[in-house]
Amino acid sequence: MSELSDTPAPGYDCEGFPIPTASIPDSESARAEMLKVYPPKTKKKREKQLLANNPEQPPEIGANTRTIPGIITQRGCTYAGCRGVVIGPIHDILHITHGPVGCSYYSWLTRRNLARIKPGQPINFLQYCMTTDMMEEEIIFGGEKKLAAAIREAYAIFKPKAIAVYSTCPVGLIGDDVHSVCRKAKEELGINVFGFSCEGYKGVSQSAGHHIANNGVFKHMVGLLDEPDKEEFRINVLGEYNIGGDAWEIDTLLKKCGIHVTATLSGDISYEQICKCHTADLNVVMCHRSINYMSEMMETKFGIPWIKVNFIGAEQSAKSLRKIAKFFGDERLIARTEEVIAQEMAALRPVIEDVKSRLQGKTAAMFVGGSRAHHYQHLFKDVGMLTVAAGYEFAHRDDYEGRVVLPSIKVDADSRNIEEIEVEADPKRYNPRKTPEQLAALKAGGFNFKDYDGMMVEMKKNVLVIDDISHHEMEKLIEMYHPDIIGSGIKDKFVIEKFGVPCKQLHSYDIGGPYAAFTGAANFYKEIDRMIGSKVWKLVTPLWKKPADPAIALGKGVDSPTNQAFREIAAGLAKAWKPKPKAAAAAEA
Ligand code: CFM
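A: This is the predicted complex of the input protein with FE-MO-S cluster.
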């Protein structure tokens, strides 16, 4: 059933899910097959993270727990979640990594959070990569002096409005007090300088880094500038990082409707925009996982309500726009929003129909971060493709099962490690944006605040949900499900493609994007159409179609596809090699 029309679309079942052309394996047997190789302890843990879905009553998933060593995870570290994800995109402050050079180097422009110079915001420091380059000497004698000198040097060269300092693993181990160094630098230089204790090992994944970053941004920046933008209908877009230009598409779309974005946290954003984001009237949350802390804290302190939105997928973008317009309740805004949706859909429909003619009934699987494995299912659904398996890398139970489970989530030692900051209503600036009567009327009309149903509720019954997927499980999944495309990251992209399955990088988008809003959706449909339609995949013979390896059959250990490929190349070379005739060899000598 389409949300934009009343008639059920052909190729979709009565619940609105695309009907796959090929049959899908039984998820319980697929699950058993994936788990059977594990030793008992590993199996016990993995079986909590690998489930058959039930949208009506999502089963409890073992999310946000430590990865089993050796399992080959796609997860990142806490430093990556803090410096790389949430704060890194602020383009006019300096980001200094306090640590060995590698931590900084590998966080240098690998995430495509784009920013461009604009009138009034002429600075873009994002192309720089700054580090204290800790050496043995600092590890032994402490790195605080080197950090203080680095901050001074960076200030002297760039004269930024603020400097953020990020701690890496060794900083926590040797006990450098980055916060006191930052406090002193703040006094000395007269600009805002603040630090983050986001050592890579601080949590079980980058998710801990999101929380630490949210706390720091809230404490050190939000609320510093009490100057609201002049425009009407002001919102912040939270949890949108402008990967491949997504935030720009969303911004343009909202502008067409007459909705003004004060700040996008954090995509192509300036220091000033963060400092005044508390003056907006609504927070709309794209990525719940990375920024739900901020939306909660802003509501408590400043009275700004928040709602979950999703601008990935045509129907979802339309739904999100309507929700924002309904919040403001202005008749002209609502009418204009409907006009924009009609225009955008009219332009998009021919693209959907064209792509759907080739992709209807195909299947996808997705293993990405903490929100995209959910959001991108809508784009596939738009063109008739069913997601047969999906999972997050590091999300929590609420991102899978919905926020209703929040009270039942057990806080373990790893989560307790992360500071929960106490937030109270601001004595002067707390201003609830709606009266209790207005709120009640909105709720009565079906409007939900702080609502996130989670991924499982919106997935088909009995498809597979896999948290923190391992390479073994991915290989088994490909073998059993033969998905037509997998959305994943760079850590497993080439493994997947060696199996003859196209892999769309859903973190950096490879070189593609934007994929958000209606215009971005068109880019995505065309891209997956091109990838799935490519003949190149037919040239790859997946492992299970090759004759059994005698080494495995004899029980001489498990062979990897890479080893096997090397052996094939070596055997080919050996076969092709011919000894040189004696005369030629003598002449060379
Ligand atoms: Fe949120 Fe993200 Fe994601 Fe994320 Fe990320 Fe990312 Fe992601 Mo890569 S903030 S949780 S930590 S939507 S970098 S822009 S793509 S894993 S699904």
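The longest helix spans residues 331-359. The mean pLDDT is 93.
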